[in-house]
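By convention, each integer encodes one residue's backbone shape. The lines below illustrate.
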Amino acid sequence: MPAVNITLQPRPELDPSVDHEIQAIVSGALQGETCNTDLAAGPWDFDTRPGYGPGSSMGDVIPTGSPRQGELPLEYREASEAELAARIRAAKATLGDRVVVLGHFYQREEVVVHADYVGDSFQLANAALEHPDAEAIVFCGVHFMAETADLLSRPEQAVILPNLAAGCSMADMADIDQVEEAWEQLAEIYGDMDAKDAEGFVPVVPVTYMNSSAAIKGFVGRHGGIVCTSSNARTVLEWAFERGRRVLFFPDQHLGRNTAKAMGVPLEQMPMWNPRKPYGGSDAQTLADARVILWHGFCSVHRRFSVDQIEKARAEHPGVRVIVHPECPMEVVDAADEAGSTDYIRKAIEAATEPTTFAIGTEVNLVQRLAAEHPQHTIFCLDPVVCPCSTMYRIHPGYLAWVLEGLVDGDVRNRITVPQDVAEPARLALERMLAAKPPAAPAADWENAS
């Protein structure tokens, strides 16, 4: 069919800022709903309180002893958005190549605009390797991402997390003591976990999602396993199945289930491991028959999406293209047109040549930014309630200005370091992941997407 010229109707400029939308909703200037009106406050209001803060993870139980952020100086808390932006730009200009700022797709717009690199966890893990001469890497993301950057960067480079309270509830759902205990219980079922059978397979290969602590990555490295992201999960599972009879996949059950199901693994061969129950709540025969043992963890952002939301989007927007993240529950992935990583979603929208309506099931900061960047399309979040990631939202321009101006003054604030005994095996697991790059894939083949 020959190309057709389309005259687009002018649309008002879209504001990519979720913070502006939340402020307008809470003030009554905009009709809409947010999951917690406390999101309109500065994150420093919650730094002294236990918990993940307002947003999607506010109902999750935070482990005792989780990092807390000290009090942010008053000058940063009281500064306007414009003042903070000017101070960040000035500090970056002074520091030059001495600092690189990494920003995750889920960060608020007021932070992303200052990032030298914006991407998903897989892309930013690689970006951290590309600046060996930078004195500091400021990681605008969450704690496990900063740990990963520290693992991959040179020892003399400082990796900085602007707000120490920016953790991850999913990552916290698999702690090292629980995983070690699970491994011991599995050894009671399978025998020597390092012994290969007649065909050269070990009983279990551990696979951890990038959204896990350095301690978990270290465990995986010590036991012959590998790290994955949502963009290379299928490639990583293929790697694991070449070496083991089964995979122990943690902490996100949904990514593991959706990826393995797309590879043809039957659901009955994917038992759930609940760390609060003996043998994960399964019997010996179920574990013997298992191909993928799924840890009982999840992402609170992606658990908010539902089949009802998809059906409503289809009813209200005939022809809508529904794309969701593979951290969503299986029934949501099955009901969507496509599922893929954050970068897959971005590339799918960029590749659409005709005006299209997209309903997206992932974190609202990315969705709103994509809507602003592609006004020729109609792009909206499946969840009508504005509810950003609690911990990503803890990074605020005030903290970014504070750590950057600290570097200007020679003061390294909020440095993240991984102990060497953990770092060596964790680095091995990460290096296996970085080598397991998925092949180029067509747009519809989400499980191979990068």
Q: What stands out?
A: The longest helix spans residues 420-435. The longest strand covers residues 202-209. Residues 1-11, 441-450 have pLDDT under 50 and may be disordered. DSSP finds 18 helices and 15 strands in the chain.
